[in-house]
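Fold it.
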Amino acid sequence: MTTKLRVHYDGRVLVPEEPVDLPIGESVEIRVGLATHEDAGTPGTPSAVLAAALSEPHVSSEDVAELERTIADSKLPPRSGVDFDRDSQ
C-alpha cells in the first residue's frame, strides 16, 4: 500500500493537512521532501525542475532490464591496434 500525504511540521511532529486513512498504532515508513508549488506543472519553471529532480523515477524492473539489454547489444569491440594497457602520453 502506498499513500501520499501532505503534512506540515509544527516544530515537534509532522501533522497531516487532511484526514489520513491508516491503521491506528501501525508503524509506517515515510519519505520526506519539500512540497512542490502550484507552478510545478509548468515546464521550465524552477519549481518544475525541482519537482522533477526530487521525484522518484517510476521505472519498472522490466524497463531497466530492457535498457541493460540494449546497452549490452550496442557495445562494440575496441578497434584493432588500440592498447589500453599502454600509458598514453
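The mean pLDDT is 80.
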